[in-house]
Each structure stands twice: as C-alpha cells, then as structure tokens.
Design brief:
Bound molecules: cytidine-5'-monophosphate
Oligomer: single chain
Number of strands: 8
Distance between the termini: 13 Å
GO molecular function, one term: ATP binding
Main location: cytoplasm
Largest sheet: 5 strands, parallel
Protein name: Cytidylate kinase
Radius of gyration: 16 Å
InterPro entries: Cytidylate_kin (IPR003136), Cytidylate_kinase_dom (IPR011994), P-loop_NTPase (IPR027417)
Strand content: 15-25%
Order of helices and strands: EHEHHEEEHHHEHEHHEH
Shape: globular
Pfam families: Cytidylate_kin
Amino acid sequence: GKPLVVAIDGPSGSGKSSISREVARRLHAAYLDTGAMYRAVTLSCMEAGIDLTDSVAVEAAAETADIALSMSPNEEWVRVSGRDVTDAIREPSVSSSVSAVATTLGARAELVRRQQQLIRDSGLRIVAEGRDITTVVAPHAEVRILLTASEEARLRRRGIQLGGTQSAAALKEQVLVRDAKDSTVVDFQQAADGVTTIDSSDLDFEETVAAVLDVVFSST
Ligand code: C5P
C-alpha cells in the first residue's frame, strides 16, 4: 500500500500515547512509542550505576542497549536484554531522570537512528509519537500533528493516570519540570511548518481520536 506515517508530538500529559495507540488501531497501522526507548536507556544506565551527567558514558549506553519493544497497538511490552521492563520504565525514578538521557545529544542521535529504522521496518504504515517525530525522526511523514493541551488539563490527566495519589507539587515536578528540561533540546511546544496543532484541552478521548483521524483523512 501507499506509505502512511503519522507523526505525533506533544508534551507530557497531552494524552499522546493513548491517543496514538488508538489511532494506530483504527488505521490498522503499527505503533511506536519513542519515549519508551528513552526510558529504557535511562533504566539501563541507572541499573548499571552510570552517572547520567557523564555524556560519553550515556551515549555509549544508548549505543549498546539491547532494547526491544512492541510495535503492535494491541500489546504493550518493552524489553531490555530480554528482560521485561514494561512497568519498571514508568517508575517515578525513571520519569525524573529521563531528561538527562534525552538531553545527551549522542544518545538522541542513536535513538533517532533506531527509530527511523523501526519506521522503515514497519513497511511505512505506522503511528509514531514522541517529542521530535514531526521535526527530526520523520519530518517527511504524510501526516504531522502536534497534540497540545493546557497546563491544567495536562496536570489533571497525568494525576488520573498515576492513580490520583500524587500531590500537586509532585505532579508539577513530573509534568512541568520534565517538559522544561526536555525543551532545551527539542521544541514540542509550538508546531513546526506544515504541522497541524490539535488542542485537546476541551476534547474527551473519543473527540481527540476523531480530530486526529480527521487530519489523517484530510491530508491523505
Ligand atoms: O513520552 P514519554 O513521557 O514517555 O517520554 C519520556 C521522555 O523521553 C520525555 O520526557 C523526553 O525526555 C524523552 N523523549 C524525547 N524524545 C522523544 C520521546 C521522548 O526526548 N521523541
């Protein structure tokens, strides 16, 4: 068939993972969660006792990490050296350290290369989401979307996702501080040329999926 690469970027708490996964299901496409790869490298570094401020060591860890992840929207798993880390990479300790890997340019270069290979391996029918998919990983994607939401909506959604047990301060740390750190190397706050912005602040899950599919069908 014709290539259909749908690139979706956005800040944390924008709902991009669950939305992208559902859009992939509806399109019978593969799904790539690039954030899971940054998280997997971060977990590997933490377990190996690597100093996350040592960019040479972090880059080497990214280059040698044996990461496998599901590219089916219907099953979620991530493995490092064959070990299941699906839940471990979502731990708060990983979330609060992942920006250190994401801001190591050599590590980014390696993960971008791998992501581009995974997109090619999908047969170019895929929904890929992250922070730099529309701009760096797949700037020539058939569909490029920036999924945004107000700060208030993002904090509320991430709070619900984490089971409603976090304090407001902890949530802010996890959402806003991480976005601020990530923003030093990738711009996912404003849409690049040719990228369609969808603001999901006042949309529910179904409405947001429909808005993304509208962009897909109107641009292909
Ligand atoms: O999407 P998620 O919140 O799981 O991403 C985790 C982290 O991975 C982000 O906070 C960011 O540091 C990094 N990331 C990135 N570029 C991507 C995807 C994720 O830098 N394309």
